[in-house]
Amino acid sequence: MPVISKIVLQKHNKERYSIFTDSGAGEVYAFSVDEDVLIKYQLKKGMELDESAVADMLFQDDIRKAYNAAVHYLSHRMRSEGEVREYLQKKEISEPVIQEAVDKLYQFNFLNDEEFALAFVRTQMNTTDKGPEVVKMDLKQKGLSGTIIERALKEYPLDVQVEKAVQLGRKYAAKNQKDSSRILKQKLEQLLIRKGYPFQVISIAMEDVTVEKQEEFEMDALIYQGEKLCRKHSKLSGAEFTQKIKQGLYQKGFPMDMIERFMEDLDG
């Protein structure tokens, strides 16, 4: 049975120790352990080691290394249990070791999915234009349970959702005045859906966002789009040219009476 012949503090990691043994054929390096494992098993020179004891030490040492890696990962910001598990899996750490490390993280309050979810929802609500459905999807991707997600989303009340949707809608409408009123409304609704706002919120928000332009501004948008179409189809002539322009403007949401006025001015 090998006997510990020497214990040496590692130069590049002051919390780990190299263990050397001698079984009669000369001293050899055996393994290394964290300081906590060294103390737990009371390793010292002259101590005999059997295979089962060494296997248990190395398992505990793997847990300690996984735990330390996770603590370092968590030092940058709060993370969910799912994120920590994924991080450790990428380091090719075995599932039994990950489970022990995660249990230890909960024991010392480094992990708390409830608090993480609440903080995440508040941060997304206050610093982004994401609606609750996108926030919910983000939390699912981070491995949070449905129950925890639903409780956390109560931090994102309806009135705040509407306020943010209105702000987003007004900003978008102001930047897209060259679209027809009908297309602008469609695009805005699609934007709010992509951003994760439910239909109830979109319906309320659309009442506060001006998408129906006065006729003179609608005509300005039509002229802008019409001139673009004219340049696009400049190689055409006659009825084919007229048809392409009319068709293009209609598809862009402009009313036919305004299209006819534009075509009359074009012919004139």
UniProtKB/TrEMBL annotation:
Coiled coil: none annotated. It is found in: Cytoplasm. The keyword Metal-binding does not apply. Keywords: Cytoplasm. GO terms for cellular component: cytoplasm. Its main location: cytoplasm. Residues 159-206, 218-263 form the RecX third three-helical domain. Residues 66-105 form the RecX first three-helical domain. The gene is recX. Modulates RecA activity. Residues 112-153 form the RecX second three-helical domain. Belongs to the RecX family. One of its GO terms (biological process) is regulation of DNA repair. This is Regulatory protein RecX. PANTHER family: REGULATORY PROTEIN RECX FAMILY PROTEIN (PTHR33602). It comes from Mesobacillus campisalis. It comes from the Bacteria.
